[in-house]
Each structure stands twice: as C-alpha cells, then as structure tokens.
Amino acid sequence: MVKRLVREVVDFDADLVRNIKGIRVSQPLFDDLSADPADQAVAIAAEGIERIPSESPLVTRPFDYGSVITYPFVPHNWHATRWSDGLSYGVWYGSLELETTVYESVFHWHRFVMDAFPDIKKEVIGERRALEVRCRALLIDLRGSADARLVDRRNYSHTQRLGRYLHERSQNGLLARSA
Fold it and tell me: Residue 51 falls within a domain, yes or no?
C-alpha cells in the first residue's frame, strides 16, 4: 500500500532548479494567427488576461509559464507524468541539481522524438531554460526508500497511485530520487 511509504517529512527551504522548454530567438507569439499588427495586439491582450501581472517581466517572465499553465491547474494543460495520470491534477517538477534536470530532460526528449519521428536520421536540437526557484514547504521525503518502483522508468502505475494519494490529502509535494 502506498501510504506505508509516507514516513518521513522534511521542512524544506532551498533553491530548486526548474528546466523548461524554451525558444532560441524571441518571436512574435501570434504572427501565425494574423499578419495584421492590430489582430496580434488583440491576441496579446487576450493572452494577458489570465497572467499574474509583474513589475519586472524580464526577471519573472519564465515563471509566468507556471502561473498560466499550473495556476489554476486546468485539465487541458495536464499530461501523464511519473506522479500524475494527467487526468485529475498537474505536477510541478524541480530538482536539487542542474545536472539531474539535464538527464531527466534528455530522457523525456529522446522518448518524445523516438515516438514522434521514429525514422529520423538527423540531429534534433531543442532549447531549454534552467531557472532557480525558491521552495519553502513541508515535503514528504521518499529519498531514503528502498522501493524500486519509485524509480521505475517505464511503469509509473505505482508512483501515480502514490501521487494521487498525496494529492487527495492536499500534501505540498515530495522529494524523491530521479528515475
């Protein structure tokens, strides 16, 4: 049973690294909808309605992704992950080390490319951004667990059950080893 794993809690107060998909060169986001600058201005205004305003957008823009995508969590932005089936709630991921985010990103990017383009024979390049984010919360600590199902790379059924269990109990989050 998953609740047997929930034995350790840590008062966590440290920086985490968030690794997200980025674009190489800034580009107009709505130029594919219309070539008319007035139409693009309307689209930009509509997109900004849900965004939390910032006094320093140059600094905070990478985090606007989180405010629009994850708050409020809306189902059409969720996808299945190690800790969520993608149907009931979304999950925010961060890491204690930059290197871990690189390995995790390469693993998932490779799976995506192989699933989407199995016959591709050329180099595929993706841009990513790594950001430090402060986390201050009581977290469930699973790092000391010997349960091999917590780090299974191919079968997420156990970790998704545990994620659902923690979500249903309104837990802040968890610390776990990278799979």
Answer: no
**How many independent structural domains does the chain possess?**
1
Cα 128 from Cα 119, distance rounded (Å) = 24
Q: Quick one: average pLDDT of 77-106? A: 87
Residue 38 lies in a domain: no
* Surface-to-core class of residue 135, CB atoms within 10 Å of its CB (0-12 exposed, 13-18 middle, 19+ buried): middle
- Long-range contacts for 78-81 (Cβ within 8 Å, ≥24 apart)? 80/156, 80/160, 81/156
pTM, to two decimals: 0.69
For the chain, what is the radius of gyration of the CA atoms?
Answer: 19
Give domain status of residue 101, yes or no: yes
Q: Is the pLDDT of residue 22 over 80?
A: no
What is the extent of the structural domain holding 168? 2-27+77-175
Contact 128, 20 (CB under 8 A): yes
CA neighbor of 159 nearest in space, from 81, 61, 48, 60: 81
- Say how far apart CA 41 and CA 34 lie, in whole Å: 10
Contact between residue 70 and residue 92 where contact means Cβ atoms under 8 Å apart: yes
